[in-house]
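Data deposition worksheet. Section B asks for the primary sequence of the deposited chain exactly as it was used as input, without tags or linkers unless they were present during the calculation. Section C holds the resulting structure in token form. Section D is free text for depositor observations; keep each observation to a single sentence. Incomplete worksheets are returned to the depositor.
Section A, Depositor: J.P.
Section B:
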Amino acid sequence: MKAILALFACFLAAAQPKDQKKAPPEWNVFVGTYTQPQKSKGIYAWRFQPASGKLTALGVAAETSNPSFLAVHPNQKFLYAVNENNNGTVTSFAIDEATGKLKQLNQVSSKGGGPCHLTTDRSGRFLYVANYNTGSVAAYPIHDDGSLGEASAFIQHTGSSVNPQRQKGPHAHATVMAPDNHYLFTADLGLDQVIGYRFDANRGGMITDDGVVTKIAPGSGPRHVAFRPDGRFLYVLNEMTSNVVAFRYDAAKGSTEEMQTLSTLPADFKGNNSGAEIMVHRSGTYLYTSNRGHDSIAIFRIDLTSGKLTPAGHASTRGKTPRGFAMDATGQWLFAGNQNSDNMSLFRIDQKTGNLNPVGDPIDVFSPVSVVFSAIK
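Section C:
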């Protein structure tokens, strides 16, 4: 068994992006926020030293409207933000690693209303955006200077599901690329589906003729998805039912096989709650989800062989409505943004148990939603 675990650990280490194999001593941390009707001005930045946990505020990195979700280019030079408005846009920035300031490069239409999530493909050639209000997904070519071209591919979802308040139409909520870069997955809360579109650089970044559909239990409202780093398992967080579904993933076909469903909440919790974010630790041994209502991060252990989950407790986020969280590339730290209490909490991750240990006092930041990192080389 020890030999198997050692082999698996080596595989996971090899699967990490090159910039994560040996993490730099310092990072810029960027936080996307809601600016309307909040007091936030846009995107905020901090300097972070993972060896000590020291965090230094750098102030406003860029002023832009409702930059609720952020993504950093694989080369660490550029940052992209949705502008979550009815007339949605996407803004590209160049990162000044010395100061943490962001220089706007250009802004393009998101091709829909309420863009809420975005990601790049793993080669950094295309950017993908999910539009929640109108239920669509768009792809954009990324130019050499980091700016975005006009949409090169577009998919309008159609249909509905069982909840008349939340699921009268499609609501695309996430765009996540599989570890092998062959399929882009989008979670659609309104359809109770996770749909995989094959990556194709020659067809604008994705094949739009059809997609591989994973059906989720009616009324669940899939929000975000996460892969284990080795690409063998896919995990889906359902916003409306506060549970996580584990799937075995067939990378060749982009298809899934459901294995289990577990609640993200303690058994005795009786209040209102909705799921928000989901992430797998870089070791592939722990999974985390955020609870808005219980105001916690749920912790799960991942079986190395089967990929199945075992509940391992909860950690208070020390604030209200944890919308997004992120782990640094060392796998030692987790940042959780509490949207409705205007603060962000820092946790040290116990590498043996996956537990989250709070460090210092929560950090003031208006209406935080997402957290990303860029390396200082």
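Section D:
The mean pLDDT is 94.
The chain has one domain: 29-375.
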